[in-house]
Design goal:
With 171 residues, the protein is mainly alpha-helical. The protein is built from four helices and no strands.
Length: 171
């Protein structure tokens, strides 16, 4: 057929070809918590989670390397190793976030100054404080292995870091 009747668009349904794609939400109204987040922000968070995973590998590798090779005989070595891992993970996260996460046109100029890096780092320092608190509670109070505690604590700190950086640095 040369002529086809256009399909009706269903309320709340979004396709890639939809010209209103950028303004739509993930779920139809009244269908869950994610409905308040626009699709681009959901994709942005997923990219941040991947970048955070790569930064976590750098952080975790540095933590284990320092703990096992440098501070293995020190009772406080795990906390110093956590700080060393934080510094490496922060640098990896910052550069990969600029390249892959906060890439929208309106964000191009944001986050690329020394002041923005300082704010990025301060948000990370709060995350480090949360990490150290979780490490202390997990290791000292619960008696868990430091590697298990680090993996568990990272999930909560990921949310803090994303929201803080999105709302303050890359708003």
């Amino acid at each position: 057929r040369a002529w086809r009747r256009p399909r009706r668009r269903q309320a709340g349904r979004v396709t890639r070809g939809d010209k209103y794609f950028q303004n739509r939400t993930f779920a139809p109204k009244g269908k869950g918590v994610l409905m308040i987040l626009p699709l681009p922000m959901i994709f942005e968070f997923l990219r941040y989670a991947v970048v955070g995973g790569i930064a976590f590998l750098a952080d975790f590798g540095t933590l284990v390397g320092f703990q096992e090779l440098v501070f293995s005989q020190c009772s406080w070595g795990v906390y110093v190793s956590t700080v060393c891992g934080f510094v490496v993970g922060l640098a990896v996260n910052y550069f990969l976030s600029l390249l892959f996460v906060f890439t929208q046109a309106k964000d191009c100029g944001k986050g690329r100054s020394f002041g923005a890096f300082v704010v990025f780092g301060v948000i990370g320092l709060v995350g480090l404080g949360l990490t150290e608190l979780g490490m202390c509670l997990g290791i000292e109070c619960l008696g868990w292995n430091y590697m298990v505690v680090k993996i568990l604590v990272t999930g909560g700190v990921l949310m803090w870091n994303y929201l803080g950086r999105r709302l303050i640095v890359f708003r």
